Amino acid sequence: MSAAAAALSACCALALGASGVAAAAANAASANTLQVAGATVHVDFEPKEFTGGAAPLLEWVRRSASIVASYYGRFPATPLELRLQPQSGAGVQGGKTFAAHGAFIEVRVGREVSPAQLTNDWVLVHEMTHLALPDSGDEHTWLSEGVATYVEGIARVQAGNRTESDVWAEELRSMPRGLPQEGDAGLDHTHTWGRTYWGGAMFCLLADVDIRERTHLRFGLQDALRAVLRASGGLQADWPIAQVLRTGDAAVGTRSLEDLYARMRDMPMAPDLTGLWQRLGVVRDGDSVRLFDEAPLAAVRHAIMTPR
Ligand SMILES: [Zn+2]
After folding, report:
1. What b/e string do you get for 191-205 counting C-beta neighbours within 10 Å, with b at 16 or more?
2. How far apart are CA 308 and CA 306, in angstroms?
3. Cis preceding-peptide flag for 76 (omega within 30 of 0)
């Protein structure tokens, strides 16, 4: 891997040797090009803009890409262009993902971002997760945002980058925002922030639990999402939502995704989240949670968080 990258950069520097400017540009590009899990990631940024320099940022990109690659069995897009836009202040401040002209992610990063903020960042994993699902239209943004919201926490737990209790505590706290409010319709018709991000994540959790129960823990949503990526190539494909769900269901041998969509697309279906947490063995304890292995669905909870 590194030998191939070195050979490539030596070749390019040689070919462009006549022009000092071009050679410098090629060197800068190769220094910011990462090979992660078989994918090439070009990181477009100016190290001088950030007080910590290049190394912590490149490590963060590599770690985030590796987390997503492990969840999906491979990194969802190659090559990926990743632009880091310097902002005032600290922290990772938000991102956007595009696929119209190749995979492209833009992330807004504070100039004073700290190593701890990069280690605990969710934004880049969320954006990279978007690369793995076909575009099924604006009406179904809840699915792409829901998958990215749901997968981010689980993928990071599986990679050892976040604790399981932290993810369940966040779901206990935030998933009720995805429940239908007074006057709301189904997921295809009410496009509020809560219904889009946490309503979509709720769809994913319900589907994940259902697939694992129906297949006696053999498969989960992770297997369905991997199959959708394999068949579609990810975000650069335009697929009707029915094809996405049918492909996921076929891979795990259930109708979990299609049945759940039929119940949630038009009608404001409100699942019993409190009962679900109890069955999973997740109990609120102040700002955190305690996890109980005696609960009826404790094995499902374990399976969700265990790397494939
Ligand atoms: Zn998103």
Report:
1. eeebbbbbbbbbbbb
2. 6
3. no
| Residue 148 CA, ligand 1 centroid: distance in Å | 6
CA of 15 to the centre of ligand 1 (A): 40
- Distance from Cα 130 to the centre of ligand 1, integer Å: 7
Instruction: Let me know whether 102 and 178 are in one domain.
Output: no
Query: What pLDDT, in 10s, does the model give residues 76-115?
Result: 999 999 999 999 999 999 999 999 889 999 999 999 999 9
Residue at a domain's end among 64, 97, 130: 130
Final residue of a structural domain among 99, 130, 161:
130
Q: Is residue 162 part of a domain?
A: yes
Residue 4: HSE in the Cβ half-sphere, 13 Å Cα cutoff = 6
Residue 92 · residue 109 · CB < 8 Å: yes
Q: Measure 131 CA to ligand 1 centroid, in angstroms.
A: 10
User: Each residue of 261-294: pLDDT tens digit?
Assistant: 999 999 999 999 999 999 999 999 999 999 999 9
Specify which residues 39 forms β-bridges with.
36
In a domain, 24, yes or no: no
Q: Beta strands of 58-148 (E only): which ranges?
A: 80-87, 92-98, 103-110
Gap from CA of 225 to ligand 1 centroid (Å)? 16
Within-domain flag for 16: no
Q: What is the pTM of this model?
A: 0.90
The residue written with tokens 């922290």 in the block is 91
102 plus 187 within the same structural domain: no
